[in-house]
C-alpha cells in the first residue's frame, strides 16, 4: 500500500511516499481504507524526534493521527463495525499511521462517521476534539450550568 513514510527522525530528506505492507489485523482491530486524514502539529513534532523519549516509533514508520474512511475487514472480536461502515477516529499512541491507504485501528478508537459530515470534515475532528475535551473538561472542569 502507498504511505507517507518517515525513514529517519529529524531529516526532512528522509520523508517519502512509498510502499509499506498492508497491516495485518489483530482480533480487536478494524482494517480501514483511509479516505481522508488530517495533519496536526503533533505529526511534525514526532517526525522531528521531539517525542522520541516517550513515543519511540521504530523507523520506518507512517505518520498520521486522524482518519475517516470505510471498514474493509474486522477482527474476530470486533462487534461494533462491519465491512462497508463509514468510520472516523484517532488511533492510540503507538499505533499511528493514518497517512496511508489502509490502517489497522483498535475498535475502541473508532466511531461511526456522522452522515452529515464529509470524510474530510470527519477526519479533521478527532485529535483537536480530544484536545478541546482535555482542556475544557479535564483541566478547567467545565460542567453543565
Summarize the structure.
Helix content is 18%, strand content 28%. It is an alpha+beta fold.
Protein described:
The chain is 18% helix and 28% strand. It is of the alpha+beta class and 145 residues long. It is globular, with a radius of gyration of 16 Å. It starts with a strand and ends in a 6-residue tail after the last helix. The relative contact order is 0.22. The mean pLDDT is 95.
Q: Helix/strand/pairing class, anyone?
A: alpha+beta
Helix percent band:
10-25%
Which spans of ≥5 residues are poorly predicted at pLDDT below 50?
none
Q: Strands across the major sheet, in which order?
A: 7-3-5-6-8
The CATH fourth-level homologous superfamily: Medium-chain alcohol dehydrogenases, catalytic domain
Main sheet: strands, sense, barrel:
5 strands, antiparallel
Query: Can you tell me the CATH topology?
Result: Quinone Oxidoreductase, Chain A, domain 1
Number of domains: 1
